[in-house]
Amino acid sequence: EPATVGPDREASLELLEAALGEAADRAGKRAPGETVEGVDILLSPGVYEDLSGAPGRTLEVLAPGVRLMPSTPGAKVELRAALRVRGARDVVLEDLTLTSSATTAINVLEGGHLVLLRSRVAGAGTVIFLQQGDLEATGSRLAGVPGTGKPPQWAVRELGRCRLFLRSCYLDAGSIYLSDESENFMDRCVLEA
Question: pLDDT tens digit string along 10-62?
């Protein structure tokens, strides 16, 4: 059964963090070799942000099979925080906007695997950083943070063995830094560096 988060804007980022923590706890309790069912986290329309004023808030995904998506098709959902996927496979962001004005928007680390479907990601410095991680993106846009006046240096930056699969994406956030140990595929994409 999907978890629904929102619409209370003041508590929304905290509720999302709690839902991600619950998914990680559930994954941590499984027996060796036992599969974990995916967890859909449905986000009510609105802007999810840290109202404390602290810069650089980061949400961490540690459980495999987590999918973040709007609660109703076509709803506008924006996450104003960074995202770190550490070792979790099959994590999906679907039809979302993620903006991190203070830091790298998304870090995929230590065997993590992230799928972006029709999503917009904006970050400062580097939009997406892969370190021994995989990224699949379809119909998505990687951009700089609006209104900062300074574009990011990297749309995607890789370190170590990574896999990058981009299809029908628009990257107007700097160039791509490819690791010599990585596999990279782009199909029908536009790169404005």
Answer: 446 778 888 888 888 877 776 666 666 678 888 888 888 887 777 678 999 99
| Distance from C-alpha of 16 to C-alpha of 20, rounded to nearest angstrom | 6
Q: Which two tokens stand for residue 143?
A: 């951009």
SS (H, E, C) the chain: CCEEECCCHHHHHHHHHHHHHHHHHHHHCCCCCCCCCCEEEEECCEEEECCCCCCCCEEEECCCCEEEEECCCCCCEEEECEEEEECCCCEEEECCEEEECCCCCEEEECCCEEEEECCEEEECCEEEEEECCEEEEECCEEEECCCCCCCCCEEEEEECCCEEEEECCEEECCEEECCCCCEEEEECCEECC
Phi, psi of 176 (to 5 degrees): -110, 130
Residue with token string 């680390």: 109
Residue 77: closest CA among 85, 90, 68: 68
Write the pLDDT tens digit of every residue in 82-129. 999 999 999 999 999 999 988 899 999 999 999 999 999 999 889 999
Contacts of 87 (CB under 8 A, 6+ apart): 62, 109, 110, 111, 112
